[in-house]
TrEMBL record, chain A:
One Gene Ontology cellular component annotation held by this UniProt entry: ATP-binding cassette (ABC) transporter complex
InterPro entries: AA_ABC_transptr_permease_3TM, ArtM/GltK/GlnP/TcyL/YhdX-like, MetI-like, MetI-like_sf
The protein's name in its UniProt record: Amino acid ABC transporter, permease
Family stated for the protein in its record: Belongs to the binding-protein-dependent transport system permease family.
UniProtKB/TrEMBL annotation, chain B:
Name assigned to this protein: ABC superfamily ATP binding cassette transporter, ABC protein
Keyword Methyltransferase belongs to the record: no
Domain ABC transporter span(s) in chain numbering: 2-240
Gene3D superfamilies found in the cross-reference section: P-loop containing nucleotide triphosphate hydrolases (3.40.50.300)
SUPFAM superfamilies reported in the protein's UniProt record: P-loop containing nucleoside triphosphate hydrolases (SSF52540)
Predominant location category: membrane
One Pfam family, short name: ABC_tran
Keywords: ATP-binding, Cell membrane, Membrane, Nucleotide-binding, Transport
Matching SMART domains: AAA (SM00382)
Compartments, as annotated in UniProt: Cell membrane
Amino acid sequence: MWDIIVNATPQLVVAGLKYTIPISIVSFLLGLILALITALIRLSSKKGPFRILKAIFRFYVWLFRSTPLLVQLFIVYFGLPYLKLTFIAPDGIKLTPLVAGIITFSLNTGAYCSETIRASILSIPKGQWEAAYSIGMTRSQALSRIILPQAVRVSLPPLANSFIGLVKDTSLAASITIVEMFEVSQQIAAENYQPLVMYCLVAALYAVACSLLSWLQGYLEKVTSRYVTNAD
Amino acid sequence: MLKLEKLNKSFGEHHALVDITTTFPEHQTTVILGPSGSGKSTLLRSLNLLERPESGRYFFDDDVFDFAKGISVKDTLNIRKRTEMVFQGYNLFPHLTVLKNIMEGPIQVLRRPKAEVEKDAHALLKKVGLADKADVYPNQLSGGQAQRVAIARSLAMQPKYILLDEPTSALDPELELEVLKVLKQISTEKRSMIIVTHNMAFAREVADKIIFVEDGHILFDGSNEDFFKTENKRIADFISAMTFANI
């Protein structure tokens, strides 16, 4: 069994470094940007045509939280080539597996994280806005200087949850032909007939990656909470 | 000079301020008194546009603003630069040190050079007796210290008017005294202050002018001396209740 592990681990690690980790990081960063935009639009009190924009983003969050990630991946990768739009894409929307994966993971993470960010902004007491306004700040100054720095601390644990979830969910990318870590473990298992060892091995590698992230979360929480916990 | 003319503000069915007309003289301390829920905080917050009255005119020096027509973002920011609010709950920025709390407005809003602002901030901290607290975070302060920092933060903006909304209501008497001493000193410097308070002894001590509000109406608008010898039964009862005269 040891030589199986010794032989397979490097291949899995390479697949992880090549696909699992980059897909996770890129998708999470894009998702975070999308989440912040979504949260701010949904929290805006602007009226008029802006309400349509709010409705669109509310629909987006509903859509991606109400459907399975695997199904979303299938629609984007296998389904969109059949979506023939005159002028824009007359031959259907054909994406490479990697692009399809990153788009889907970003949209999915963005939908979940937007709710986290929205809630964390709402959790900051109204008095903080008022104090910011009182010293003459604009809404965007109040948001960027006073509210968001405090909201970051509140949203860190749930955002870390989402990131850790995403790292594991990238294993679904195997189903749209991306040769990430889990796909490689399947291929090796098919050759050496050791599914138990191979899948336990890949599970352990996911666990290592996620443990590192938990540690990073703890560190970031400590840094961003300097002002709450007394530095005795 | 600040002046309000026929100010009206409702919260749903509740008519919080009814045709309020009054002035807040410059270089004087105006104290707003009245029972809880009378509309005195709403009146104060309207001056800083944290509340938006539905109608009425707001005169600020040479500017006139009409609430019925709405006040533009630019005018709002302009008014807020000239008025600073001190809140009952302090509302210090918890993620910034005491010094940074004071420097935030002058740097971000007034765009003044950092070195100069920092020097002023240290001077203000000294003035409120907290020179040694510059680098601590607000959660390490007592209520009285926090409120004094909030006062320093408002002074740092060099406003024309400082608005204080029950600044000592959350404090025990000893901590209250710390804050009142600072306010007393500011009032002797002939700054323009408007204070909402329940502390009668303090009102009597610092007020040049007193406004008494009840059910959204002004029942008294005059000098400190006249207020405390008023013939008005309602006001006399209020004063006696607040000073525990007939306990």
